[in-house]
Structure formats: C-alpha cells, structure tokens
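Before a colleague's protein record goes any further, I have to sign it off. What it holds is a sequence and that sequence's fold in token form. Would you go through it and say whether the fold makes sense for this chain? The record follows directly below this note.
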Amino acid sequence: MFRKLVWIFKRHPFLYKTRFKLLSKNASIEEINDCSYNQVNTLNDFPEYFFEVNAKIFKDYKPTSDLDLVKQLSLWFEQNIKGGPGLSEPSEKALKIMLEGKGGVCSDLTQIFNNFCVINEVEVREWGVTRAPFENDFGGHSFNEVFCKQLGKWVLIDVSYGILFYHDSELPLSVVELYKLVRQDIKVNFKSFHEVRRFNASVITNNFLDKRNVPFLICNYSNKVYDSFLNIFKMFAPVFVIHFLVYLFGKSYHYKFALDDYRAIFVRT
C-alpha cells in the first residue's frame, strides 16, 4: 500500500501533466545554446562527500579529454551503482544510498552525474523526454549532454547504459542533432562503452528513437536549493509538495522545449 501511495504522489498522470503545465516554456535552439547546469551550480554548492568520492573515481588516472573523462565517470557508476527505486533525496544522501546498492533510477544518475561534471570542470546539462500526446504507459527518461571542448560541440550521453549516438562519422551526436535525424527517418547508430551492464536495444529505441518522443532541457536546477528544501521538509511533506514550495518561492527548475511546442503534450488523441 505504501509503495502504491508513493507511486501516486510521484507518477500519477494528473500530477505529471500538472508539473509540465507549470514548468514548461517554449524556446528556440539558439536560446538553449549557452544553457548549462554549471551556470547555476558552483563547487561550493555540493556536499564534501562528492569531492571524497570524486578523488576515489580518479585516484589512478584522470583523462584530459572531456569525453574520456565522462566515459570514465560513467564506467565507475556502472561498477559501483546497481540502481533501484527512485530516491528524491538530498544529493549527499542520494549518492550514499546509490553506492550502498539500495536505489537510483535514471533521474538520480543524471543529477549526481551533473555534480561530478561541475567538480571536474566539464560543462553539462540534463535533458528529459516525454511523449506528445502524453502516454500513461511511457514514464519518460532522463539523460545528460556534455560540452566537449576538444570536439567543440555538445554530446549526448546516456549514463544509465553508457550510450553514445552516431550518424555518418566518428563524432557523437548532440541531443538536437539526434532528434532532427530521427524525425527525418535517417538511420542513427548507438554504441555502449560500458563493460558489463547489458541492455535491450528496444529500450534505447523507446527512449530515444521513437518519433513521438519530445525532448526538453531541464534548466535552473540548483543543487544547493533542493538540498536545503529536502533536508528541512522531507520528514513533514511528500516530495511533490516540497517541489511546489520551491516553485512558490521562485527558485524552481523549468523545462525548455526547443524542438517542439510543449502544448502538444496535452493534445487529446
């Protein structure tokens, strides 16, 4: 019964769609070019525990290439985080639970990946994907994009599976590049650099290569703000209430839709 109540609070279609109505904004591709998680979050915004773990991740070797660095970070996640239920916890507690093998879904992975990227001076941002029109059976997915200075471009990386996407060259695709190709029915390839973790190709197709998918950039997420609110109110209120409080205080994240009109989510079929 408790798990059912948690699901209702977190994934009920009414609350899911309400969140999109409150937080969504249409934007141009040009408007999102310079958006990044690093603009809102600095080294002082993360618990010391992240720096302790980061030292362990790169204790033997730290790549100089941004792409190689985030690959190594993702591989370390694969070897040390088994995954499990979604967490909705302050960042330090979330990371500890994940390293204990007791939880962590795609959104949890992307958020802690964001923090480690900032610590290692890699520009990063977080994306989500939903369906238009909205589908109850598609829970969405979260993934990251990093700006690789050596390549001079943004690169989509799915940390959950260690996936990069390609078209007709060895250069991995950005989020915008991927979705433009998918919508033109142009073949896209994907490769995993993970060593052990297995995945079903249909999962990647469902999350990325379905033409009904609508990507959105998650902007203005402050790790420090959400840590503060979750630490203070988690014992007294459901997570969706806490997020609404952050919204009322004007400190909430928001979604930018650069390829689609977000109102298409609410069109009835």
Notes: Confidence is low (pLDDT under 50) at residues 1-9.
